[in-house]
Amino acid sequence: MSFIPGQPVTAVVQRIEICKLRQCDNLILGFSIGGGIDQDPGQNPFSEDKTDKGIYVTRVSKGGPAEAAGLMIGDKIMQVNGWDMTMVTHDQARKRLTKKNEDVVRLLVTRKSLEDAVRNAMV
Amino acid sequence: MPAEVRQEQSPSNQTSLAMMQEPQEIVEETVTIEEDPGTPTSHVSVVTSDDGTTRRTETKVTKMVKTVTTRTVRQVPLGPDGVPFPEGSSPLGSYTNSIDRRFMKNGERFSTPQATSTLTRSYNNYSDSYGETPEGPYRHYGLHDGYGDLPDSYGSLSRGVNYRPRYPYMASSGYRPENSYTLPIRKDDYSHVAQPQVPLGGTVDLNRSQPERFQAEPYGLEDDRRSLGPDDDEPYDLESDYSTANRRTVGGANHGRHMREPPRVRGGYEDPIEADLIDDRHPYMPNLYSAPLAQAELGSLASLDRMGPMGGRRSPSADSVRKDPRWRDPDLPEVIAMLGHPVDPVKSNAAAYLQHLCYENDKVKKEVRHLKGVPLLVGLLDHPRPEVHRKACGALRNISYGRDHDNKVAIKNCDGIPALIRLLRKTSDMEVRELVTGTLWNLSSYEPLKMVIINHGLQTLTNEVIIPHSGWEQEPNEDSKPRDAEWTTVFKNTSGCLRNVSSDGAEARRRLRECEGLVDALLHALQSAVGKKDMDNKSVENCVCIMRNLSYHVHKEVPGAEKFQEPSTNQAPGSVGPQRKKKDDAGCFGGKKTKEEWFNQGRKNGESEKSYDTLDLPKRTEPTKGFELLYQPEVVRLYLSLLTESQNYNTLEAAAGALQNLSAGQWTWSNYIRATVRKEKGLPILVELLRSDSDKVVRAVAIALRNLSMDRRNKDLIGSYAMRDLVSNLPSGQQRPAKNLEEDTVVAVLNTIHEIVTDSSENARSLIQAQAIEKLVAINRTSQSQRETKAASYVLQAVWSHKELRNSLAKDGWNKTHFQPTATSQAKGTRSNKPAYDDTTLPLMEKNQGNKKSISGDMIPMDELDPDGYSTIDQKDKDCKYKSGDVSSDLAEREPLKNDTNRKQFVRTNRPAVNLVDTCDVKPQPVDSWV
């Protein structure tokens, strides 16, 4: 999912809708994110392009809402409820995902297997 | 929040039914109604405060709960004419009957005094009994003009009480109040006491009428402004005798409302009403307690000042007292005297009222004690009537709550603890069990009572509560699925009590460990919690804390422990653990070579890894049980699950503390534990918790890591992967990090670092790479804390002792002076300021000794450390702020005192697992947030 500066970024995305789970006072999604423009992209084990500062799914808790919705480790989150996630800080992404007043988050994610599948289909 | 006592919830319906069958008894009925959540709450009692000494155990009744209307009906033997015998053998006092609401609504219908046809049954009963009663007087009331003028005051139901026809009672003027418990003022009024109003039929009425809207609470806390809608607008021309009769009944339940009437009363019916009012407030009746008594001048209110904590919830009676100085509540001595009253409901209501008065009011508690109320209450615990022992127990629970240990001692001194235990054995009523265990929990927070509770109650608590609620079965039925634990209030209270007593030193631990079924049941409960992923509740916290406490010093205190000791790591494997091991020897170690490899060869990674992986834990031919379960390697997984999943800081701390305790000491089992933690991938979990926001979690984890690093392989791993997290918990000079950890924690972290870098130049290198030297030097030079200074100084010395590192240190601009103890820190190094942490759950004594032998490093002047510098055992006399001064207490001492305030969502931040980190990588670590 690398991009060429100046060119529009294209990506194969999947829509994933996650209903937050209420645990006591907290609404949880059941996954963890890494990355962000304020983080060191070189340490992101999931990105192909080590300069990618996007938000990545680093862990998905077993049996959690995210897993049920089909989110996978290594997915790159493109949008959250329509908000762009490719150029945000880690904390901005976290906050966007954890809005207390939203019970559902709709994600656009991309992952390598999706891109591969599309590429194969086109071949 | 242990104890929620709901006075109102008492399931006394059955009781009252039973009682009804007894003639000439007070019939008390408690009706439980769902109350509208919108109405103001009544706090019967509840404490949420966390004073350092006790768990809140008082009770709170929120108003959304059920309210109960208590009716007390006295059945009086009637003479042939329907008039009660004047000398009624039963002390009947007044009768209080609550009118059902329907009844009240119907009030409007009584527009004419003659409207007998509209009378509800109770009225009819009444008239049956008193058929000969002249109607005249009633009519008189109804016709009275004055009612019409009276505005809202008529709206309240209770008002009716005051208007109760008094004439019939005149007949019973001979009635003599039978005892001294009556309030003085009342005495002359007893002639007016009107039992007859509650005819036999009254019981029928009770059955049939369920109050719908109007809920009176026994304590009179109900909102006295609540009035029946329709009545508000009704001019009281309906105030017919019939309706008054009804109202009066209502008033009985609605004691609080009495207050409003007086003004009206004065206007219209001074004398007669006065008499009626008095009737209603017969001191024996439950409503009495909240009902105002004439005689504000007694000034007893001062002693009953219970308003403070309840804020807006004022007792209507108090309010009304202000409005009408003629009424008062019974004062404390009177209430206490009523505890000895021969009539059971009087006792129970007195106890209930005491409970209410004591709620969050230390002054009243003290006064109750001084007035010798505690022995009376304890005596009532053995009372056969559920109502009585329940309420007595409720009062005791409130009294036992709080910092004032004298109250607890008072309960103990009149043998209250055995009485509570007896009651627990006897009753199957959940509410009573909650109250008993809640009281015991309160009592258990006071050191001197812990052993008493153990002596009297340990096995009972275990058998009656812990085992059944844990779901553990001694002999599991093959067919049945293992049961899960039930997190009931009773279980929570009991586990809290045991948690407290388990901190009472070695003897207490021994008793608990040897208590049959206790450890098994607790473990089962915890496993069930892990299985259900329900690990954040208080019961789990209590169970883990008990386990942690019982794990303390297992390697010394458990019977036969000496056989497992491994004084040095070179001990021949065959010599350890004779008794359980004999059969296991081969399986355990597979020979000396394997074990030694495993234990001593940490540095050679490949090999030691291999030998570790092939290490067999002891195989058992029969299931372990009892205290042996405490230190079986299987528990490691349990604790690690808790550490991974729980959001409760106290649970996290306790689980880490348990691992810390188990991995301390030199005996066979701690070796297994240390290896198992690694094998179960526990190190990353622990290291991750170093990032916790909770001070005490960080501390417990740091100390656990230190103990775990006694295993050489663990030491290398921790040095490689945990150093950065350890260092990040250190303050930068005087500037505290974001977390602002306590001194104890910083010292613990420093000691752990010291342990890790000692004798491992690689780890020391990691420390340098984690840029810790700057922090350490800063702490050493500038910290305000002597203990921190000293601990940092030891770490620096340890680093400097690695000669091969000095070059690179010099390159970074450090020189020898940075690593030498500063003059001040040396001066500060007094015995009372040991470098080691104060955390007494860390039994490192043996470790210390063992290390002295095995440590090859010559650099660390161990002698300069105080001899017991590493042992946390003898430091109890140190100034530990958590300590109450009792040297026999453990860390757990403070556990029970903690509140939940710090329980918040624990978000593990940062990267997923330690092993992602390259030790040589000095770049900031990737952040990773759970969402």
UniProtKB/TrEMBL annotation, chain A:
One example of a Gene Ontology biological process annotation: convergent extension involved in axis elongation
InterPro entries, A to Z: PDZ (IPR001478), PDZ_sf (IPR036034), Synaptic_Scaffolding_LAP-MAGUK (IPR050614)
Pfam families per the UniProt record, alphabetical: PDZ
Keyword terms, alphabetized: Acetylation, Cell membrane, Cytoplasm, Membrane, Nucleus, Phosphoprotein, Wnt signaling pathway
Membrane topology recorded in Swiss-Prot or TrEMBL: Peripheral membrane protein
Domain PDZ, residue spans: 15-112
Keyword presence, Cell membrane: yes
Cited SMART domains: PDZ
Main location: membrane
Classification via PROSITE patterns: PDZ
Keyword Acetylation included in the entry's annotation: yes
GO cellular component, as recorded: basolateral plasma membrane; cell junction; cytoplasm; nucleus
Family annotation (CDD domains): PDZ_TAX1BP3-like (cd10822)
Compartments where found: Cell membrane; Cytoplasm; Nucleus
GO MF annotation: an example: protein kinase binding
Name of protein: Tax1-binding protein 3
Organism: Paramormyrops kingsleyae
Automatic annotation (TrEMBL), chain B:
Gene Ontology terms describing biological process: cell-cell adhesion
Protein name: ARVCF delta catenin family member
Bias kind Polar residues: ranges: 8-18, 39-51, 820-833
Acidic residues bias spans: 25-37, 230-240
Biased composition (Basic and acidic residues): 259-269, 874-884, 891-903
ARM repeat residues: 372-409, 415-458, 681-718
Organism of provenance: Paramormyrops kingsleyae
Subcellular location: Cell junction, Adherens junction; Cytoplasm; Nucleus
InterPro entries membership: ARM-like, ARM-type_fold, Armadillo, Plakophilin/d_Catenin
Nucleotide-binding recorded as keyword: no
Any one Gene Ontology cellular component term annotated for this protein: plasma membrane
